[in-house]
Fold these 4 entries.
Entry 1:
Amino acid sequence: MKPGAISRRSFGLHAGAAGGLLALLAAIILQRCNIVSEQTASPTNVTSQSPGDVAWSAPASAQAADGAFAEAALVFGGAGTLSEYLFAIDFNFAIPSGEIVNGIEARVLAKASSANAEVDGVRLIIGGSPAGEIKGADTPVPQTLQALTFGGGSDRWAVDLPRATVQSADFGLAFRVRLAVPFGGATVSVDHVELTVHTSAGVFRSVAGQMFVPGSTAGEVFRPGAVKAQLFAPGAVAGDLFTPGAAKGAVFVPGSQAGQIR
């Protein structure tokens, strides 16, 4: 058999094996990318904090869904039309090392004595102070006990949420309500506040030299300077799967000819 024929058969076999290896690698990468988790917790410290006209009575009652309520009595022309913040902190989250926070979801189990109450705003508490995006403004407070949901699994509330911040005792949620109309009144009752932290394995924020680097997109595998979706690193040496200048889909090392595998 001619050497050329042997070379072609050999290439076909190895190319197939290489394709299978790349497919397996892609499957492993995608599985890694989809590793997500969540933790739901209740606060261990809930207080009423200014600014606002009306303080919450029994704010600690919002620590558990047990039928005991933190309440704010809003009266037009009376005590006031804007509540203080129901300030819920110290959720005792424990996020594994290497995971990143993708989003925060908040739920407030609440009701109002009339149709006159609405949410003034919901914010995260970072470092003991309200921070980030204001959510839920103008949301009616229902007259039957329901969970009001804010944020979500990929919502970071327009703030940086490193692992240490979310785990700190002064991280939490601030909830405030107001009268929706310039008359009458309403008592808003909150039974429970809880937060869910959505996290994923931190491969998307790894440093140079790891499979993913800052700026990479979910499902992609590349390093600074690499062509999108290729598997190589600038300055790669013999033995690496791809090297600078390799054609997309090619598998070779320095000194080999394009399309060869060795």
Entry 2:
Amino acid sequence: MAIAILLGDALNGEVPQPERSDSNAVPLEHIFTILQNERRRQVLRYLADQDGPVSISDLSEAVAASENGKSVRQITSQERKRVYVGLYQAHLPKMADMGFIKFNKDRGIIDLGPAAEAAFPYLNDDVPQRYNWPIYYLGLVGGGWVLLAVSFLTRLLTPLLASGVFLTVLTFCALIHAYLARTNRARSTLTSPASTE
């Protein structure tokens, strides 16, 4: 039956089109290619902390200082130059080609590109998480067992009431966890203006 309908539509000039995937989405392959290098991760972090475009000189100084564990004033010209050359010749053009930064090579100006936002959820995986949910849940379960044991031993609470209190607190914690996870997923979904494949 479905074949007959499709065949009839095709004969009428109405050929069903396959669903198109969002060609503007930043491919994970591009995100991970950019983030596999520490220097490129530092570029994204530095640009994210700035209010607008920066010069390649300022960027090079900041990255060199970070790589060498020094302040910007303490880095040598050789350390600065080594980072500058690597950024200018390799990292910045690659990041610009994939849309993670905007790089005006003639003026030496760099800014975040449209694809940068898609990398931030992965970029921040190496910093401590704001909420450590497994520990929260382990604490809740431990507290629930203590509450249940106290209810059996002291008869201050009935086991049913203790279980109800525990399940209410656990449900509340799970709802907060689900809300925060959904909010973080919504923030991490960003598209670039054009696919770079």
Entry 3:
Amino acid sequence: MRNLPMHTFPTYTFWARPNGITPADPSKIAPPPALWPKHAATANSLPERFCSIPPAATPASPTPCSAPLSDSPSRSAFERKRILQAYGANIIYTDPAEGSDGAIKVARQYAERDPDLYFYADQYSNDANWRAHYETTANEIWQQTEGRVTHFVAMLGTTGTFVGTTRRLKELNPTIRCISLQPDSAFHGIEGAKHLPSAIMPRIYDASVADENLEIATEDAHAMARRLAREQGLLVGVSAAAAVVGSLQVIDRLKTDRLKGERRKADRLEEDLRATIVTILCDSGEKYLSERFWNEE
């Protein structure tokens, strides 16, 4: 893993952890190995066994199943569908109006109807999801910032990245502020992200770990994706761009507070003066190159 310093102010440093290095490696590259092992023996013993890969997911590593079955909203990006097809997935498209929730329902139906044929990883309910980030992502952030991280910012999708990373970072330093991000409406274009008030709530989600939640507009995420590509040479996905939008909002607020001279507790003020903000670039941009927003100004 490598960290890229994205933006530095006189007293604020912004680090972004790039998880989407290749088209098939979203932020879920950490959880999958933790999700498969206990099922590997039975999966390999069934020559026609299918893996039910819940909504629009891309297998980040070879699965122990003979053929993946993916439920995907039909509005998913064209490239995402092609990548799944390249892996040999049998894709079942669900109602685009239902988003990822529609795909979750169909995946559950297949798994419940024939559990001996389908293995459903269920990353929205599987504790191995958040634990993978608790054991790896958080510790890597802590080590590579040499313990200087003061703010952690991440988008909510399955919520595993935010919940697991936050739990561990809070153990390492309870004063670290952890800010979750989600789309600002139920109808949004930040693929992979969830507007929790209108969606099926992931069982692994723990609202108590967040110090704050910010809402991100799709248009702002699109604009940031273009900006990162053109100014920073970073081709990231819409959800990754949204994470940067949220992180810069945190930085702007810290700068504003300082300029206003708001006097809070001395230890908190000192923390803000040396803030190190870390976020996750949770997806690469290759899966979205057919989207029209790249040509907008």
Entry 4:
Amino acid sequence: MSRHKHHLLVIDDDATLLRLMQELFEDEGMVVTTAIDGAVGIAKLSAFYKAHLLPCLMIVDLMMPKVSGIEIIAFARKLGQQLPIIAMSANTDALFSARQSGANTVLSKPFDIDELLSRIHGHCALTT
């Protein structure tokens, strides 16, 4: 098992998937902040920005009620930061929109765990 001190912000409205991703990333030695919906995700991202403590990467589900993943990506880009963003969805059109909105990487759900970890390590290596 590799050990990394990458800090991730993970936003997904599926509580089971959110918990599984948190456990997986923590088992890999990463620090994980989670948000169960888009509004909470924006609040946490805002707090990180104000404290000048942005995570090395944000993972966001695109299809969420209230505040969508696309809106979160747009908000992150308006902050003017180059925060790497991985967008995930089972919806192909949403993945295209995410790429157009500024996501660095888009992954279809269900995703391959090894590919996701590889993308995380690649993006975070560039920001640390």
